[in-house]
């Protein structure tokens, strides 16, 4: 019988030929050897598919080609092939530190937790190190993790190692739709509904490439709608698993406004939002339920008044202020 790998690393691949070799090589260079890398070529139109195949000489590298279906669908496909005990996400333009898997394995041996949080380094158009605000070397309950991930918008799949069994239990095919943004938020909450505990380490194990033109650093009206859709999904999912309480509900609403406010400002500043777009936002369940989180305690003075002007449909005033701000 083929030996079961301890780690399954799942990488959706779409038109990323410039960075893909470094990404894959960072897995081959790991000091811990019990892993499999599942590359899901999501209908790439450049040479990314051929680059994936060029690494298949190593029998730990599995390549799957599919028609373009989006990131969530690619991850779901990767999960069906995965055989490991724990899984990691790895974006095709990022790379791992050589000691990544070895360090995580030690944390798993210590804690036995379903989810291991670790630090990462931003590089590219932004630089810096990011660690969890939770104290390292400690185990946390399911609800503590839910609060941390929502409040700190720590949604990423790639800075956490997760027990594969928990991921497969969390598979939600309602989510297999195209989202321009916040797909990780939806997926990580679905997973958290099935975990028992998590463990935090401070080690910087992942290198995250920040692009000026990435979805998380650009803005269009669909990002606002997707944020509302995912926020409503999160509320529904936590209620289904009896994990919702007043504190978490308030955190979700605050998080929604934190994600939406800077994008709304940018859309107004660039004249990329219409009155009909605004009306659609006002009718969304996520926006309506966020009203109580719109307080001076939660936001600085400028952001608070911007949100209030939008809440009371003073679009002409917002356009004037944002244009003056732009000048």
Topology:
Layout: E1 7-13, H1 17-28, E2 35-42, H2 48-54, E3 61-66, H3 71-81, E4 86-89, E5 95-96, H4 100-111, E6 115-124, E7 128-130, E8 139-141, H5 142-151, E9 160-163, H6 164-169, H7 183-192, E10 197-210, H8 221-240, H9 246-269, H10 275-283, H11 285-289, H12 301-311, H13 315-326
Parallel strand pairs: 1-2, 1-4, 2-3, 6-10
Antiparallel strand pairs: 4-9, 5-10, 6-7, 6-9, 8-10
Q: How would you explain this protein's 3D organization?
A:
Strands 1, 2, 3, 4, 5, 6, 7, 8, 9 and 10 form a ten-stranded mixed beta sheet that branches. The protein is globular, with a radius of gyration of 21 Å. Helix 5 runs parallel beside helix 9 (246-269) and helix 7 runs parallel beside helix 8 (221-240). The chain is built from 13 helices and ten strands. With 327 residues, it is an alpha/beta fold. The protein has two domains: 7-214, Spore Coat Polysaccharide Biosynthesis Protein SpsA, Chain A (Alpha-Beta Complex); 219-326, no CATH class. The protein has helices at residues 17-28, 48-54, 71-81, 100-111, 142-151, 164-169, 183-192, 221-240, 246-269, 275-283, 285-289, 301-311, 315-326, and strands at 7-13, 35-42, 61-66, 86-89, 95-96, 115-124, 128-130, 139-141, 160-163, 197-210.
């Amino acid at each position: 019988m083929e030996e079961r790998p301890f780690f399954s690393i799942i990488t959706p691949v779409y038109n990323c030929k410039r960075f893909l070799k470094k990404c894959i090589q960072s897995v081959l260079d790991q000091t811990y050897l019990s892993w499999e890398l599942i590359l899901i070529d999501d209908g790439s139109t450049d040479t990314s598919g051929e680059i994936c195949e060029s690494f298949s000489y190593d029998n730990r590298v599995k390549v799957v080609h599919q028609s373009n279906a989006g990131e969530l669908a690619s991850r779901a496909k990767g999960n069906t092939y995965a055989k490991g005990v724990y899984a990691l996400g790895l974006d095709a333009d990022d790379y791992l530190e050589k000691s990544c898997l070895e360090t995580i394995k030690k944390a798993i041996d210590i804690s036995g937790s379903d989810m291991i949080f670790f630090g990462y380094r931003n590089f590219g158009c932004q630089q810096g190190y990011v660690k969890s605000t939770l104290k390292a070397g400690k185990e946390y309950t399911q609800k503590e993790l839910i609060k941390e991930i929502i409040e700190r918008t720590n949604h990423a799949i790639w800075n956490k190692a997760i027990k594969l069994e928990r991921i497969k239990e969390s598979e939600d095919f309602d989510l297999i739709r195209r989202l321009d943004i916040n797909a990780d938020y939806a997926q990580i909450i679905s997973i958290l509904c099935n975990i028992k505990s998590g463990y935090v380490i401070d080690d910087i194990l992942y290198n995250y490439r920040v692009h000026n033109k990435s979805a998380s650093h650009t803005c269009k009206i669909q990002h606002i709608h997707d944020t509302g859709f995912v926020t409503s999904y999160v509320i529904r999912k936590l209620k289904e698993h009896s994990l919702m309480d007043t504190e978490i509900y308030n955190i979700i609403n605050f998080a929604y406004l934190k994600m939406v406010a800077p994008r709304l400002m940018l859309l107004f500043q660039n004249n990329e939002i219409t009155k009909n777009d605004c009306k659609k936002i006002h009718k969304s369940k996520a926006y309506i339920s966020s009203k109580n989180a719109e307080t001076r305690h939660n936001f600085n003075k400028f952001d608070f008044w911007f949100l209030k002007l939008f809440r009371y449909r003073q679009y002409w005033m917002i356009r004037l202020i944002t244009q003056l701000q732009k000048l």
